[in-house]
């Protein structure tokens, strides 16, 4: 699962029927190399996440299962809202220290 | 789902039978690090997207489902046309601000 | 689907039984950031592509379907030979202009 | 499988029902290009790994199987704790030498 | 399939039951951008590859099939030992020339 922050919403009127009613959030991966950290993408939300919250995001076929159905046209989904995380930064670059 | 812009079309006469009649669009991911932003690829379109529109694209096995069949040789598909998106750029780099 | 160019062949005598008789081509993705454009990989070919041709390549579980069987040990497959592509380069970096 | 180091834990109270009781660890890939080596992500742990240990991590649909069920909303899982690894560094950059 | 070189072995005593007896090799992708070429990972071997040999590696759900079972916790597998490869380097950067 990727550690992401919810940064916004996206609206699409014209879309696949199966996406109607699904809450779509823009998320951005956290804790990665700053050179690559600007990648944001859209994930379906079923846990009630809000902008500014740190969340766990699953991708691929797992996202369909998380979103509630094998036939959903979804390839990323928020599966949890992070309360806290604790990382040993001594061996790393401290990327999660200030998170 | 990736946030992409439709930038063109691709034509292939010699192809797998299952691709006949499928509308194939060239899309490019938006909102990522400029150093990586030039990646373009081909996605099947079932929602009627046109060049210049911002779209939501799914990849992998989800694309087959979105394109209408588990046996389709498709690994990327446009699932929605974006009306608007709203991202909190204060914590980010504003990549979606001007989009 | 990735836009690739066929750049060569690969031969492997010792391999999984299911790969026997399968035509394996070396392909390289086109139109991406020059810093990343050198990635080449091997794809199964079922459409009769030749070296120098631009092709559409699918990856992952879709490649097995494209190659003709769910049980094939294949994760990339050529599904079409590109006749032409037309991309709006005004908003991009023209990567497909000279292709 | 990726060669990773366990660097921490993550807690999420609000999450998908199926994740309740699952041990979620923050892992970071080892042995890659330093420019890319800071990517950390979350993996389900079923083998009892602890912070500081080097582990093997599987991703994608394989992670669901490793975690114990096809319907689990998990896309990364620790499948083994590395006792030792031996890599020929003469042809490489010695990235595993000091590991 | 990725073109890789076998660079070593990895041992893990504590691991998922299904991995017992499986030969796990450290492989490194060849022929990519030098800036990215240091990525090494672990693949299950069923064709008898040895250190120093160039091999074809499949990833994702295909690796489970290649390794012999849909329920194996494996996401990368060696499917062939490369005898030779021939790539048109005129249009590329010659990355496979000296391989």
- How would you name the oligomeric state of the polypeptide chains in this document? homopentamer
What integer value in Å does the Rg of chain A equal?
14 Å
As laid out across the biggest beta sheet of chain A, the strand order is 1-3-4-6-5
Supply the number of helical segments of chain A.
1
CATH topology of chain A: OB fold (Dihydrolipoamide Acetyltransferase, E2P)
Structural class of chain A: mainly beta
| Shape summary of chain A | globular
Which residues of chain A form runs of ≥5 with pLDDT under 50? 90-99
Helix fraction of chain A?
under 10%
CATH class of chain A: Mainly Beta
| Assigned CATH superfamily of chain A | EutN/Ccml
Biggest interface between protein chains, with counts per chain?
A: A-B, 37 and 37 residues
Describe the 3D structure.
- 5 copies of one chain form a homopentamer.
- Chain A is mainly beta and 99 residues long.
- Chain A has a single domain, classed as OB fold (Dihydrolipoamide Acetyltransferase, E2P) (Beta Barrel), CATH 2.40.50.
- Helices cover 7% and strands 40% of the residues of chain A.
- Chain A has 1 helix and 7 strands.
- Chain A has one helix spanning 61-67; strands at residues 2-11, 14-15, 24-29, 40-45, 54-59, 76-81, 84-87.
- In chain A, strands 1-3-4-6-5 form a 5-stranded mixed β-barrel.
- The two termini of chain A are 17 Å apart.
- Chains in contact: A-B, A-D, B-C, C-E, D-E.
- At the A-B interface, strand 1, strand 2, strand 3, strand 4 and helix 1 of A face strand 5, helix 1, strand 6 and strand 7 of B.
